[in-house]
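Hi V.,

Quick status before I head out on leave. The structure for the redesign project is tokenized and pasted below; the design run finished overnight.
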């Protein structure tokens, strides 16, 4: 007779609390499957990570002129980012203070004032209520302006925070990153392409995939033309003579690039606070192979007009990472920025933008296909890999696997940051 494992089944089906999953997380290993599949953990991610931390959402040239507006959705929150009449940036909840109707319906638009289509309540670009008909003589417009959202412009990168009291260390990040980013002069660029890619995986898998290049040599033939795979780690015991020569060449190029940049007054050396700050970040200028100019298939500049104060095309690529949801590549001729926004436990939006000098003319100064080809291919390849990882996380056979200590250091830092921030907020309850 075969016994029915009633007690065992009940034990297996009992869900673990988020707190217990966090407590037993094993450093150096991937997260348990619930972190990638559980609706409860997904909701906790939205509440603790995306509603309480600084989230990268766009760039200054998304709203270049007074009256320009951009809408960003983070879960149920819809946020208007507007350029006001004094050229300042403002952020508001996209909700009318009358009966709650959505105000701006397009992702990007230009307005004189923000007018609700429902009852025509009218708001200035500073969020103040300017007009509300039929509300009576005692109605105080000053009490019914749009609800503001915290915004910080870091050298042209726009971050917002939905919390009432946002993390103050955004100022530390800004002071550290501005010397790296400022020479590229984001304010005087323009967005020439935006591609939104829906990846079939949890947002953390999208971020983990970005934070390593262990998979690059096999999966990214386009990206590894300009980038050095050895620049993202390697196992010294598994490198042959040819590999050692390549590593020595790469390390020499790093040294030369740092000296070249610093001679021109540009920050280049690695700064890393990915997992020891509330607002985590990292920056480093890395060499580009062959011609050494840009992340293109021929490694030469894709745009003839160089950015900002840059006069030397051979300045490699500045890589910037911020927790929890962005990475960026700055070259002498163009910029590529990436933001990650969760949609559901197993679906994520990856938004990529390409920027060039604001005066560059397509077909004369740059060819759009050449400009975007490396990262279009790479994003599509990565999206497929994230889907594979998500499918594996659903399996009952899944268990956390060990990170490579040589190539997945930044994945571990992302996971450490995530677990640390979740634990910090849960412990406050």
């Amino acid at each position: 007779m075969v016994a029915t494992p009633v007690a065992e089944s009940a034990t297996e089906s009992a869900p673990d609390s988020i707190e217990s999953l966090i407590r037993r997380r094993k450093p150096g290993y991937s997260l348990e499957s619930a972190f990638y599949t559980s609706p409860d953990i997904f909701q906790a991610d939205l509440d603790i990570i995306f509603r309480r931390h600084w989230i990268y959402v766009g760039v200054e040239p998304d709203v270049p002129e007074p009256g320009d507006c951009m809408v960003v959705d983070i879960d149920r929150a819809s946020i208007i980012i507007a350029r006001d009449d004094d050229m300042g940036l403002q952020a508001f909840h996209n909700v009318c203070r009358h009966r709650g109707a959505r105000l701006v319906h397009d992702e990007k638009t230009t307005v004189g004032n923000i007018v609700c289509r429902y009852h025509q309540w009218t708001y200035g670009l500073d969020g103040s209520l300017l007009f509300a008909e039929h509300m009576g003589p005692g109605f105080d417009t000053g009490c019914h302006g749009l609800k503001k959202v915290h915004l910080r412009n870091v050298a042209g990168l726009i971050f917002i925070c939905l919390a009432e009291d946002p993390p103050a260390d955004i100022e530390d990040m800004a002071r550290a990153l501005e010397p790296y980013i400022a020479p590229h002069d984001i304010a005087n660029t323009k967005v020439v392409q935006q591609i939104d890619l829906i990846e079939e995986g949890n947002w953390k898998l999208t971020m983990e995939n970005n934070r390593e290049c262990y998979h690059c040599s096999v999966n990214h033939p386009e990206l590894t033309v300009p980038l050095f795979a050895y620049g993202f780690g390697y196992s010294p015991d598994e490198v042959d003579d040819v590999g050692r020569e390549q590593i020595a060449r790469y390390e020499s190029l790093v040294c030369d690039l740092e000296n070249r940049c610093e001679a021109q007054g540009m920050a280049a050396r690695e700064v890393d606070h990915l997992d020891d700050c509330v607002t985590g970040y990292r920056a480093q200028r890395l060499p580009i192979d062959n011609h050494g100019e840009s992340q293109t298939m021929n490694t030469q500049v894709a745009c003839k007009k160089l950015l900002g104060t840059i006069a030397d095309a051979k300045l490699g690529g500045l890589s910037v990472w911020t927790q929890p949801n962005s990475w960026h590549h700055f070259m002498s001729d163009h910029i590529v920025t990436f933001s990650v926004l969760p949609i559901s436990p197993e679906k994520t939006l990856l938004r990529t933008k390409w920027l060039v000098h604001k005066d560059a003319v397509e077909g004369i100064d740059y060819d759009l296909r050449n400009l975007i080809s490396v990262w279009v291919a790479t994003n599509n390849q990565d999206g497929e890999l994230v889907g594979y990882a998500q499918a594996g996380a659903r399996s009952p056979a899944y268990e956390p696997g060990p990170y490579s200590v040589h190539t997945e250091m930044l994945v571990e830092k992302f996971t450490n940051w995530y677990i640390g921030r979740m634990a910090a907020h849960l412990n406050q309850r």
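Above is the designed sequence. The domain at 169-426 is CATH 3.90.380.10 (Naphthalene 1,2-dioxygenase Alpha Subunit; Chain A, domain 1).

G. will cover questions while I'm gone.

Best,
W.
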